[in-house]
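Incident log, structure service

09:12 report received: a user says their structure output differs between two submissions of the same chain.
09:20 pulled the input from the user's history:
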Amino acid sequence: MAELSEHPSVKKFRAQAADSAPQPKATLDAHELRDLCLRAGADDVGFVDVDRPELAKDREDIMRFFPHTKALISFVMRMNREPIHSPARSVANVEFHQTGHRVDETAHRIVATLEARGIRAVNPAMGFPMEVVNFGAGKIWVVSHKPIAVAAGLGHMGIHRNVIHPKFGNFILLGTVLLEAIVSEYQQPLDYNPCVECKLCVSACPVGAIGSDGAFNFSACYTHNYREFSGGFTNWIEQIVDSKNASDYRSRVTDPETASMWQSLSFGANYKSAYCMAVCPAGEEVLGPFLTDRPQYLQDVVKPLQGKEETVYVVPKSDAEEYVARHFPHKQIKRVGNSLNRLRTIQSFLNGLPLTFQRNQSKGLAATYHFTFTGTEERQATVTIHDQKIEVTDGHTGNADINVTADSQTWLGFLAKERNLVWALLRRKIRLKGSLRLLLAFGKCFPS
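09:34 re-ran on a clean worker, output below:
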């Protein structure tokens, strides 16, 4: 084998290095970098130091993904508003997908330009593809775009959990680029929230996921709006597997539902509603029609979505099921399984409790639960449910009303409906110290 030093590529590299190629700047000029991003296609941009306190929750994940990160570029791309307003959600979804592709293309151009200047940078996807192999065990996204955008001064979160840009409103999609270089100037969060607290997102949401008090029912939103994403797809596959024949399958899944799933698989997953974004009037460029003629705005934008006859997907005995029946009796309710309960780790179970908690199902319950998990994953945790709120902490704190000791794999199987509670109690795979009534009341708060 020839010496490495004699390889043509090696000799060419060393010859070029000897020509004293220009070195990248240690610090990037913020004005030049902003201009670079805008030329690449961004509509607005901000820069954040990776050590900022606002990124503390995500810093470990960021550094694990790209250990050389010193700064982050956050940018926004505007969406056309009228397609998002449309009751024809096919039109809205084309806008989501097209803008999403533009975000990824813009991030790609930014990274390519920086790389040509000798600066390492990485552009995580705006949405998909994600690290879905982690589904049920942890985060499937590489970077949390929303907190980075807020830290970069590109907006604040409204009660609908969308970032609202001060000018463009919530009709934006977000992109992020991780840099190995520092930037000469960083932005700070806005000193006000563009949200005008109109609560139109509350009134338009078909599953009541957004509370007027700011509470958010993640499970309700995930089950319906993201029906044709990963969780709903899993549920659809299970319907196929459980069906005895084609006739049985059609009794479980309608032809339009099958066609819609095919469309999402073929052309990109479609959101079922996203009405909270559609009706939001916040943002300097967006606010005019709402302020000028509020009744007309409601007639043009909000009521067509509220009045739309459609299938709404809910978990049985959930807050969403009760909400749809009460507020939108003209919409058809379809009960589906809660894929959020198909967890692979106890940590995921504990992290997911606030996301799947149904506060209206917890009325009248005031209890502290001490959980002790044994076996392959040993953990201790305290869950407190009081005043229709939930708190989850590590370890055993306070005085427990009930102690639950469970083999970790048995407990996860119980949540996934692969294990029977009575079977687990009889074999002492799950042991209780306290009233079984409290465990049943706990389960009611997390319907599946």
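09:41 both user submissions now match this output. Likely a transient worker issue. Closing.
09:42 reviewer note: The chain has a mean pLDDT of 92. Residues 89-116 form the longest helix (28 residues).
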